[in-house]
Amino acid sequence: MVHLRPVLNTLPAYTPGRPAPEAPGRTAYKISSNENPYPPLPSVLEVLRQGAATVNRYPDLAVTALSEAIAATLDVPPARIACGPGSVGVLGQLIAAVCDAGDEVVFAWRSFEAYPILTAVAGARAVHVPLTADHRHDLPAMAAAVTPRTRLVLVCTPNNPTGTTVTAGELDAFLDAVPADVLVVIDEAYVEFGTADDVPDALAVHRARPNVAVLRTFSKAYGLAGLRVGYAVAHEPVAEALRKTAIPFGVNSLAQSAAIASLEAADELEVRVKELVAERERVAAALADQGWELPRSEANFIWFPVGEETPALTDACRDAGLMVRPYGVDGVRATIAETAANDRLLEVTAAYRERHC
Fold first, then answer.
1. pTM value?
2. What angle do CA 182, 128, 123 make, to 5 degrees?
């Protein structure tokens, strides 16, 4: 029998969002994957149509044009941009760049479920630090969890799946406590949906601290989840290391062109983001009126910390044609989607509370 790494037997499985079951006369909605419900803008679709004619050619290995466009948008040197197949792909490159076997990666839990998977694949050890009672990062506890073997700390803000954020003051105090040779990655996959005024300016923090990198994606606000393109903003030595650990041609040509076109259509995309944020606030207010006590979300989803009731709430949604994302017996995450889906969710949650509360 072919020898396989024993660690594969212990890897937690990444659970993708599944479509809701269809039923006659009823539209089913998948609100389990934090997808943007809007299709790409017409200008982006046109770029994709034109680019399809040249997919017989390899993409630009260095992702030059997109890196330069991102750098110009963020006002950082192009040499600090490293692109990959989604922010999760870039994160895999980061872990490969900094971790040897037995090194440690510290992150909050629950947070993005790919963190422990990528850490284990790299042969490193995941250090889970529980969230606070209000479902936020416990940054003092995370700082205390750093040891001489720690190479990477992940701060997901807004946090997936709880939607909570860290404050600027909390992050500064945390970074002051972390050794300068430990890389801290601020994962901002959902940053465009945030409206709180006390959150960090991650790019400013990055500029001030050589051990801070920022991770972002085109999958969420930009609606390019199917094309898989994300990037890190990192100081030159780290960015160069990311390019060394990248899969050759990992960002395909259509993804590069569509991401550039999306940056050029930023004003149009901002309108869509504001509409999703308004929907989030509408849904959150309605849930509060129903009696739900939920953490405030700064992302494009809502977190229901229902504990042991997670399977029951998931089943209630599925029976109504909604596929949400359960997390063991911790809670349920529901994406803010088209208005009809959000209204269906509110109907389900109202009926659920009548039966269970």
1. 0.95
2. 65
